[in-house]
Amino acid sequence: MNALTMTLAATEKREEAKDKIAVLQRQEATTYRRPLPTFGSDKHWRQSIVEWMYDIVDSAGMQRDVVAVASYYLDATPVSTREEYQLCAMTALQLAMKLYCSSSMSWSSLVRLSRGTFNEDDICDMESRILQSLKWRVHPPTANCFLREFLQLLPESVDTNSLYRLEQISRFVTEFASCLNIFCQYQPSHLAFAGMCVAMQRMEVGMVTDIHECMEANTGINFDDIATLWAELQRSLAHNVSLHELQVSMATLCSPVHKSTASPVAIKPVLQFSRSPRQVSC
Fold first, then answer.
1. Helix, strand, coil: what percent of the chain each, to 5?
2. What is the DSSP letter of 33?
3. What are phi and psi of 190, to 5 degrees?
4. What rounded mean pLDDT belongs to the chain?
5. Where is each Cyclin C-terminal domain found (predicted)?
6. What is the 8-class DSSP label of residue 203?
7. pLDDT reported for residue 84
8. Are 191 and 182 in contact (CB under 8 A)?
9. pLDDT at 275 over 50
10. pLDDT at 71 over 90
11. What is the pLDDT of residues 169-203, one digit of tens each?
12. How would residue 9 be classed by pLDDT, with cut points 50, 70 and 90?
């Protein structure tokens, strides 16, 4: 493939990403406007539920982004008791798995998971409630949806290693934020960009400037739009994980890799923390 062909392909990919982002931004502002959690004011209860969702998804070997979808379903469905909330969480996760994964949990598996607290009729009824609350709009844009497209827009000054670190740390941050009530008020596009800004802290100044200019030109989002969110992410991360340790680990893993010989997907990091990044607190 010659240089001209590669340039045209890259341009086409960026234009496609811009179109997708525009559609996703319209959706998050209208049809899929992010609901605030409907159940009570106990932030720790929702946090525990979302962490439980991640544990289930991890044990089943499924993609973690399904949890962002399931938590959207959960937050959009009115419930009045903790038992209903637990049932709603189980059913929301199973519904998201059915729609987004190649395999899912059966209702009988959910009954066993609840240790007999609920039966299949309970789950069936709750699924109907969730779908009615959603008005059958079951494909909300998530922060990772935006992140995937944002990464397609990045300028050529971002080398392969920097791109990989940016992607992995941004995903880590958005996953972390999905557990906390305080971040439910923010649009997924802003959360994705704020996660990128957290990840950019150890990158070269010139590269960071290029990314900010590229994002504003192609998405209409600038740092001023997400400054409050970025500061809140910084504060929450400081209370829970060592972002410096994460950055250094990623840099170490990427250091022997060169842009001309490796792609981001070729690197498989294993990062060790004393606590799960999802076991978080405000």
1. 70, 0, 30
2. P
3. -70, -35
4. 82
5. 141-266
6. S
7. 92
8. no
9. no
10. yes
11. 999 999 999 999 899 999 999 999 999 999 888 77
12. confident
Q: Which residue has the tokens 């944002």?
A: 150
Task: Give the pLDDT band of residue 134 (cuts 50, 70, 90).
Answer: very high
Q: What are the phi and psi torsion angles at 43 (to 5°)? A: -65, -30
Each residue of 146-172: pLDDT tens digit? 999 999 999 888 888 888 889 999 999
What ranges do the domains of the chain cover? 43-134, 143-266
Q: Which of 160, 168, 156, 186 is nearest to 33 (CA)?
A: 186
**Domain 43-134 identical in fold to domain 143-266:** yes
Cβ pair 75, 183 in contact under 8 A: no
Q: In CATH, which of 3.40.50.720, 1.25.40.180, 1.10.472.10, 2.60.40.10 is domain 143-266?
A: 1.10.472.10
SS (H, E, C) 215-263: HHHHHCCCHHHHHHHHHHHHHHHHCCCCHHHHHHHHHHHHCCCCCCCCC
Q: Which residues lie below 8 Å from residue 231, measured CB to CB, with a gap of 6+?
A: none
Coil, helix or strand for 102? coil
CA dist., res. 168 & res. 243, Å (int): 12
Q: Which two tokens stand for residue 3?
A: 């240089």
The two tokens of residue 94 are 């199973």
**Counting every residue, how long is the chain?**
282
